[in-house]
TrEMBL record:
InterPro entries, alphabetized: AsnA_fam, Asp/glu_Ase-like_sf, Asparaginase/glutaminase-like, Asparaginase/glutaminase_AS1, Asparaginase_C, L-asparaginase_C, L-asparaginase_I, L-asparaginase_N
Similarity field: Belongs to the asparaginase 1 family.
Keywords in alphabetical order: Hydrolase
Keyword Endoplasmic reticulum: no
Signal peptide feature range: none
PROSITE patterns: ASN_GLN_ASE_1, ASN_GLN_ASE_3
UniProt name for this protein: asparaginase
UniProt keyword Hydrolase, yes or no: yes
Active site: 12
Record-level Gene Ontology MF annotations: asparaginase activity
GO biological-process terms attached to the record: amino acid metabolic process
Domain L-asparaginase N-terminal: 3-187
Length: 329
């Protein structure tokens, strides 16, 4: 008999009407009633927190990771019910914190509360149970709208539709129907390069570049962050004429602050050597993130900075594929 532990964290799936709008309100017993399963699987439930996922913090990833780690010998797989707004960040965070754990960890939720008449929650719960029971693929996955997505590759791109998440720069892992699963892509087994580490440094900053952004902003960042992620233009370019942002990157790097360069384009990653505007960023010390998505970069940089402040080590760890987060395309 397969044993599954469901960890409840709140989110829309468990929300009810409150005076100021929807907020998590179902008890664990009320939520558990919707987890209908066969007699050949045992399902236990535990409440970790009861939050709208907008209020989810990196420290909460640690709470989830430690509970899963402590229970790995008792359960075959885990399901986390979670709000959708930060689900992709949590999936990435757990992918790094639990990298190497030979268990299937499924995160699911819904766009409409499970207690509502028309809801996607019941299907997502059923699909999560099916994947957790039958997939037998270690790692962290988001199961939503009949699809299983690798945790480091998921992005929420819709606010209302049931198909809220997409897999970016990586194949969908599985399609899930009623009590049935079709594995579409089997990730290769990774060699664990870095030891498991339960630590997070949340003092990072995410900057989206736009025409007109003042270079003076980098002076502020120099005093207030330990790591910067820049969503650059196109293939990794930053302006160096008039409002020179490249010199801002160089200034931060000279102070030992890592600057990770990604792109605002969701698909196809980046190539900083293709254009002068990108090559100058690389020469200034910007660290390319290849085809990683922003949610994964944020979580990975927090995890890396909790372990080291050495620039060379930070670059090596960021650019080493972990949980299939990098270099698929």
């Amino acid at each position: 008999m397969k044993k599954i532990l469901v960890l409840a964290t709140g989110g829309t799936i468990a929300s009810t009407h409150h005076q100021d709008g929807l907020a998590p309100g179902l008890t664990i017993d009320q939520l558990a009633r919707y987890f209908k399963h066969n007699s050949d699987v045992s399902v236990d439930f535990q409440v970790l927190m009861n939050k709208d996922s907008t209020n989810m913090q990196p420290e909460d990833w640690l709470t989830m990771a430690k509970v899963i780690d402590e229970n790995q010998s008792r359960y075959d797989s885990f399901i986390i019910t979670h709000g959708t707004d930060t689900m992709a960040y949590t999936a990435s965070g757990l992918s790094y914190l639990l990298h190497g754990l030979k268990k299937t960890i499924v995160i699911t939720g819904s766009q409409v509360p499970v207690s509502f008449k028309r809801t996607d929650a019941k299907k997502n719960i059923n699909d999560a149970l099916t994947f957790a029971q039958k997939a037998d693929i270690p790692g962290v996955f988001i199961v939503f709208d009949g699809k299983a997505i690798l945790g480091t590759r998921a992005i929420k791109i819709r606010t209302k539709s049931y198909d809220a998440f997409e897999s970016i720069n990586y194949p969908y892992i599985a399609s899930i129907g009623e009590q049935d699963i079709q594995i579409n892509f089997q990730p290769e087994t990774e060699t664990v390069v870095f030891p498991r580490h339960f630590g997070i440094c949340p003092n990072v900053f995410l900057l989206k570049v736009f025409p007109g952004l003042s270079p003076a902003f980098f002076d502020f960042l120099q005093q207030h962050t330990k790591g910067l992620i820049i969503e650059s233009l196109g293939n990794g370019g930053l302006p160096f004429e008039k409002r020179d942002l490249v010199s801002g990157v160089e200034k931060l790097v000279s102070k030992g602050i890592p600057v990770i360069i990604t792109t605002q384009c969701l698909e196809e990653g980046q190539n900083m050597d293709l254009y002068e505007v990108g090559k100058r960023v690389a020469d200034a010390g910007g660290i390319t993130a290849g085809d990683m998505n922003t949610e994964a970069i944020v979580a990975k940089l927090m995890w890396v900075l909790s372990q080291t402040s050495d620039p060379a080590t930070i670059k090596r760890m960021i650019q080493t594929p972990i949980a299939h987060d990098l270099d698929y395309i």
